[in-house]
TrEMBL record:
Residues 5-166 form the Dynein heavy chain tail domain. InterPro entries: DHC (IPR026983), Dynein_heavy_tail (IPR013594). It comes from Ptilorrhoa leucosticta. The lineage of its organism: Eukaryota, Metazoa, Chordata, Craniata, Vertebrata. GO terms for molecular function: dynein intermediate chain binding; dynein light intermediate chain binding. The gene is Dnah8_0. Pfam families: DHC_N1. This is DYH8 protein. GO terms for biological process: microtubule-based movement.
């Protein structure tokens, strides 16, 4: 029981740290007012990397051994652990899925950033791709995500037009 108690303490520390990561990942992002759509992709790539690292750690042999010992001891701390494991898996899947969908927009970021009104010819294809993301993505099709993306696309268009006007 002494070993079990020590292992439960370790798992409780991990649980607290993982909860902190999850809470931080859900906080509202602070970004510059004129940030473009490539920042959205970078945000999700960073989040995917963080959660994949966390998943790798959770699936390590050291963690698995501790969890199996606590399972054998029928520890009550495992209920919280399993819930967090599920939450991390969901967050990692969301980030991976969002990166995959946002990469479909990546080909538009260059033309959108070019200092030329020619970017306008890319807008219909860009909007069709955004619509496809909204219709098919299981995670990114929320009002919050789509508003953030449209805001960044609009920011990029405004910045491109400003640059064009200042150069001309």
């Amino acid at each position: 029981t002494e070993v079990t108690e020590k292992l439960e303490e370790v798992v409780m520390i991990w649980t607290k740290q993982i909860r902190q990561v999850l809470v931080e990942s859900e906080q509202i992002r602070r970004e510059a007012d004129d940030v473009g759509p490539s920042a959205e992709l970078e945000h999700w790539k960073s989040r995917m990397s963080s959660f994949n690292s966390l998943l790798d750690e959770i699936k390590s042999s050291r963690v698995k051994k501790i969890i199996s010992i606590l399972q054998a001891a029928r520890s009550k701390t495992l209920k919280q652990w399993k819930e967090l494991d599920g939450s991390i898996t969901i967050a990692a899947n969301e980030a991976k899925d969002n990166v995959r969908y946002l990469y479909t927009l990546d080909k538009f970021f260059g033309p959108l950033a070019n200092a030329s009104p020619v970017m306008m010819e890319h807008i219909p294809s860009l909007m069709n791709t955004v619509c496809m993301i909204y219709c098919t993505s299981p995670y990114y099709n929320t009002s919050e995500h789509m508003t953030s993306l449209f805001l960044k696309i609009t920011n990029q268009m405004i910045n491109t037009c400003k640059t064009y006007l200042c150069e001309g």
